[in-house]
Amino acid sequence: MLADLVEAGGQDPATVIARAPLLPGTQQTLGQALGNQAIRTLEKEAFGSPVGQSYYRAFRAANSAALRAAAETLVARVAPEALPELSVNIATDLEEAKDATDAQEDALWDAVDPSGTVKISRSAIDAVHQQAISDMWPIEETSIPAEFSRAYAALPDGPVALNHYQQLRSVVGKMVAMYLTVLDQRRSGAAKCLYKALSTHLENLTPADLTNTDDAEGVLSRLRAARDFSRAKDEIFWQNPLREIFRVDWTGAKRGQPEAIAHRVLNPYRPEGVRQAIAALRLSGGEPADLQNYLVSDWLYHAQMGEFDPGGYPILSGVKLRKFLSANRQLFDALFSTDTAKATTQAIVDAAERADSVQRFTGTGGLPIAMIFKSGRLVNELMRHVYHPTSWGPGMTNLLLEALRNPDIGVDLIRRARRRRR
Known about the structure:
The chain is mainly α. The chain contains 21 helices and four strands. Among the domains are: 2-71 and 359-421, no CATH class; 103-245. The protein has helices at 2-8, 30-34, 37-48, 53-72, 83-110, 122-134, 138-141, 146-153, 162-181, 185-203, 216-237, 242-245, 261-265, 272-283, 289-302, 318-327, 329-335, 339-356, 369-387, 394-405, 407-421; strands spanning 119-120, 160-161, 304-308, 314-316. A hairpin with a 5-residue loop joins strand 3 (304-308) and strand 4.
């Protein structure tokens, strides 16, 4: 009867071949492997019966385990049950990246004039100071940080050491970051004007502006390298959401909880966050492994169903996998840029949806009407035996269900049945 049903689906039972699954390691039913609509109609009915449900659950569990194994090829750790821990890891990575970039920045600026002998004109610095003040709003002019005023007053009256001037600029940069984090708009605005003026002056220095050195070109080359690194760092860490992550309150305590950092960085509505985080990690020589671990783990977490496989892992829903992937497509593309990784994520979704489709199959559309009637009669006859196995014995019912769940067994049975008839 199974061979007759294959024939009713428009295939020769003697030559049927099971197609390979969409994703290596995943499973498919006999009807899916053969692409036979008549067999798929039988599967929908058989796996929905009381005796067939256990076979379908076993099929879904094995398929879900294979999907999880495929996800584990993308990242080092898949742990949907440990998302808060993975978020803490991301927060730690970003903290370490910021500390490392701060150290790199300091080293580059220290290398500009290691001997500390190069000097620039004090009158030029005074002109820059006055220009910065003139560019401020009146309310900002009255809010110039006291720390800057003290540091500026400490400059010598004559030529100023380049290192001393660099330190002044660095102090002002830290003021900007500090006042931004505590939301002091007036002082942060004044500090920004000062920082911009000092940075512009340093960028536009010429060999003629430097005194007490025989290597003015080399000094300026190292100065440009330090300036470019500082600019790249500022563009990353001074922009939201990373700026929000490192924000502190008036006591100096972090506002953001490490367990919630991942949601700020991996926000599908603000994909620039993950790009910032990747840039921050790579600027310090790191890689976004924990970001990848979290995104894939969160993907599987949101795709979980109420059923569990024998290993205790929740069975995954293909519909939920696709919805999450579609909503977070920009995040996946940023973190998994290789063609292989993109193909794997799509194959996981396709294989999961194919497993879901066993119970969502809608019928034998496209077959000739005579074949539809014939396949319907055969399905009804086979289902009568499924619901009343005493008519041919429980062993035959179990064999039929196993043949539907395992294409290798099903194809073998169909071919042997056809050979016996000949």
